[in-house]
Amino acid sequence: MSKAIEIVPGIFWVGATDWHRRVFDRFLSLPYGTSYNAYLVRGSQKTVLVDTVARGFEDLLLEKIGRVLDPAGIDYLVMNHAEPDHGGAIPRVMAAAPQARLVTTKRGVEMAGMFYNIPVERCQAVAEGDTLDLGGRTLQFLDTPWLHWPETMSTYCPQEGALFPCDFLGAHLASDKLFADEVGELVMPEAKRYYAAIMMPFASRAVRTLDKLQALDLRIVAPSHGPVHREPRRLLEVQRKWAGGPLEMKVVIIYATMYGSTEALKGAVVGALSARGIETIEYDLGVADLSHVAADLVDARALVVGSPTVLGGPHPLVLSAVETVRILRPPGKTAAVFGSSGWGGGAAAYLKARLESAGYQVLDPVEIKGPPRPADLEAAWALGQQVAERVLGG
Ligand code: FEO
After folding, report:
1. What does the mean pLDDT of the chain come to?
2. CB of 167 closer than 6 A to ligand 1?
3. Which one-letter DSSP state was computed for residue 343?
4. How far is the CA of 149 from the centre of ligand 1 (A)?
5. Can you give the pTM of this predicted structure?
């Protein structure tokens, strides 16, 4: 989308669509690219730019703003979040609008100085409930820290029922359509994958913010990535489920295999779970995208990990996956571990300890030597049955 789009009279999308970006934070794959949404909000007296775009898109942003008004006429730049994918154009905007003040939280003021060399004198710190009167239109600020940085806040325009939550409620999805109802089926799966990788570690903060949003008349949710929601009820419902449950009757199995022994054990575990009617989702870490693993862990009751022992420890792909799970902090806290080795073993005990230190309740592992014999497969089946008992027992 190469031009400014008027969402409601006087509120314009002036963001950038990044069709070609394929990975975020060197972790989250972006098969559909992403967008950096910025919004121009005009009152009868004042004009505000809400967030900016990533570095490299500054010219595009200023060109789009220029189709609505001279950028020098911007009175305030609201920085809901300091991360460079939204703040990258702050120095250019502040230079183009020499009278503008940067409006952000107290911590945001520090970050604006640290990342973008914006002097404190050009900043205006705001806190929960503070407002800006634009003339016939108001912006109100909501303190929403740790979604997903400490300085994050959201901006609300009560006259239009429009919320600008920056990263929160977003999705990495480039499209030639601005509105979620026009983009279609990809929106919710991509919003979930995004939630898993970015917001899941802060689920309790997300619930708190969703509670706060319930008191607002919300007619438009305009995040800083992905489509704008002009019927936001469904989005808010699914976000609440992701952040606060309930969990599904579902188990995620991640594993690596070198000569097929660990994979054979995995088959027995899956068989036991399936026999109890539990959904199983398997990821061979040799080919899996960890962001999809994370998305499935948003509402799975249990995680099962399989690894051969490699040089005394877990297979490096399993190690990496488990460390990723640890930091993303999925809500389902039941886990099981299995694996195989040629001689000494040790991967299963290592993984059990890592998962326990992240709050998981880990069943006694099954670790075998060499190709699985019938008794080994029975042990793996029994492990699957124990997981099933935990899952079915809630
Ligand atoms: Fe989209 Fe936290 O930046």
Report:
1. 97
2. yes
3. S
4. 9
5. 0.97
